[in-house]
Protein 1
Amino acid sequence: MNRPVARLALTACVAALLSACATAPSGPTASSAAPSVAAQQASDVQQLQDLFVQTLPIGQVLARVAAEEPNWPLQNHMDQYSAKDVACLRSNLLPEKGDAVLRKRAADYAAKHPDRVKDDVAVLKGGVTEAMAKTAGAAMTGKAAAKPDAESLKPLIEFLMAPRHQDLREALYMDAIADAMLGAQSGRNAGRGIGARIMVPLVLDAAKQCNVKF
């Protein structure tokens, strides 16, 4: 796919839509080295979780939707539900709930691919997260973002297209964007697909907590 087409496809997709090493004076022993390795691994996983939340800010999306629509997520069915139902659902759809989904997905991914975590942190920090903020920031969060130039989009396009990043894309719900860029579906449908994969489970879980029947 040539670069202008890739940029157009990317824009269409995103618009419809995160150790200290203690050593003894004589050098680390086996017992002192083990905790430092574990601490570094935990730090890498923490960074990956933070970057997941920054790259696809579900919590900010939930906050934006809730602020714009007082009866969300029941705004189209208020003849069947009460204000109490709305209040209960919204209390279970707070921004931290959305962020928790991504943090869990990052932790699950790290558990399956522990050897990739450090490199994946570098990939996301190497321009992917920043490019997503610039291309999808306004669409997802309502906050204006600087318009990206072609050079700043390169890391994101590489991330979306390279086969070696497929597992990470899936963990981040971003595989649908890659499919759209390859022509498997339109950008708008890709955006809807991402939204459904993220929001539907959250809303259904909230409904279960509130004993609200759909």
Note: Residues 5 and 17 are 19 Å apart (CA to CA).
Protein 2
Amino acid sequence: IRTGHSSTNTVPAVRATARIQNNLILTVKRANGETETIVKEGDPWTANLAKLILDVLLGGHYGGTAQAFTCKGGTTGTMISTESRGLNPSFAIGIGNGTSPFSVDDYKLANEIAFSDVPSEYISFNDNGTCYNINITQSFTVSNAVNITEIGLFIKINVLNVGTDYLLLSRDLIDPPVQLLANDTISVLYALYFPYGIPPFTKQFYGLMLNYIFCLRAYGYSISFKCTDGTSTSLSDFGIDEPYSSGGGADYVSEKLYGWLGSGSSIFGYDSYTLLNKISTTVSDTPFSLTYNATHAIFETKISHSLATANTISEVGFVIQSIDIDIAITSDIDRKTKQVLVLYFVLDNPVYVESGGTFKFKCEIVLPLAG
């Protein structure tokens, strides 16, 4: 963060960690009545998850920093389409006997032998006050003897302007293999944990991520969140926004990410939905960029914003500036676009900026993928 004309005050970039725990529980029921349970903690995520978060929630698709995700069928894209002209994502699980080592760039199983969508009765959701938990279960009965060596968690998505395909979020190798005989059943349970209340992620961020990327909307468990004007909703029409009645498939509302600066004295609040005292908005969108390796994904963005009058900056927010929350519109111009605060930073040391000075802010968000 830098301030002033001739003088510069610099502090390190703000760095935060997003934690999404992914545990895998396999239960084998033998045709002879025997039962075996295998638990694997900390299943790895693919880069597809990081790319989807970047493109949809952190401004990448409309801001020019998007990275293409690759689906099971080979489809690629940088945005999903939901609600009125799209498909709200839902879960699917695959099992296979491939042995290729895990890579964060995996987009399908090495050798799939069974694949199934997950119906609503096999999804559960819980909020214990500090953590969201989603359980996803699917069972497979084999007709012939086979060794199960890999498991994959997918979501079924409508890729904007392309079509429907499945996106691999997690793949893990099972070692030693699970040896199944004819008529044995393997039950796959993914237990996903999302600890919340950790800066800078607001309830709005989790609402959008869990409702759409982690499928709560499709299964009737949507999280309600607030727009910056206080409107409560659980809806967001990403991608094509126009109603069926008009046809043509236009994407009218661009979910671009902007930086907001404020001077309100505050502490971080998970329920925060706007700045305490907003004083300025960046003149252009501020999408995050993404780099990743075998173990981590890093999202990064910078703000450089001049202030016409002197001010002390104590809060910085990142806001999806225009989001469509009305899926029952009757014309192309009759839609409710709102603003949503997804990231909220409260500065431990507020920064004074002289009149005509420039405020510079850099932040990084780390998402562990494996390890």
Note: Residues 1-10 have pLDDT under 50 and may be disordered.
Protein 3
Amino acid sequence: MTPDQVSAVTAFGPYKTFSNGDLETYKGVFNGREENFQFFFDEQKKLRRIGIYLYEGQDLQAGAKKWVELYTTISKMFGAIETPDNAAPVDDKANADFSTKAIQVVESTGKTQMAPINQPDDVFVFSSLMRSNVEGKNIYDVVLYFDRRQ
């Protein structure tokens, strides 16, 4: 898809255009809720990545809570999930441990990730809980990515 083809899907607009031609809408729907979708294009203006931004804010605890929710959602969608440096949550205690460990990893390295073990044929699916610094403040993001396979 090209930027024009994406923005032609008016049911999910309006779309913001970034200076590099990438697009964003807050009207995309994931797991029954409107979310921030960002569309990233390559040099040939072909869609290469979709990022669904499920959390953006300064509260790492809130980001970690969304991270646990995302684990549950994508495991229902795709099956078993690989969670490097962390153990899969299976109950309330494991959810708390998963969240705590994710916070520790983000605090020490800046990012933790997870991905379905069995990937779809047409896209690579993975997610990140990450920290960035914007104007001297830590911002945390939980993002689910869909990358076009070459």
Note: The CA atoms of residues 89 and 132 lie 26 Å apart.
Protein 4
Amino acid sequence: VNASEAMLNAQLVQHIVGFSEDYQNLNLTLSSRQASLAYGETDIILTHVAPTEGRIIRKKVGELSVRAYRNATLEFPTTGWIATAHGVDEAVEPSEIFAEFGDVPQFTLHSLDMTVEVMRTSACAALLPARYAERFAHLDVIDHLPEQKLPVWACYHYTRKTDQIIKDGLDWIEQSFHTLQ
């Protein structure tokens, strides 16, 4: 299964318990690296934007809740924002959300862990998956900025539409999103 780091960390890895018991015939590989369905590099791709071209079957499997967060332990006000390349900022318009912090991000980082670590010592805000951010006591929701609900689409090649591996994988993915909502 290929997905953004945000989907992997906030949803799928949170539901890994019991996977081996429930799906004994499946070996699971989770990756955030880009892969092609057409070339058989992956079985399922999760995305926030449903594909409209190619020989791809798509199915909406859930939503990812995204909120703006800041470091609640700092005594000075939030003054900037962090753009992240973990699959969330590409799906929403951060300039609308962070207009009060400036049009240009102070930092651009490439992982959720790095973003949270920079937030620990800076006055910057960031968009984070809510389920992921809940793990960190020093992060606080910026209440006046709206929650975003991003659709999650599972995509697979049409030649695999009767494949039991795809059916089982989709079943687990859907359970992951619905169990954790």
Note: Residues 12 and 173 are 7 Å apart (CA to CA).
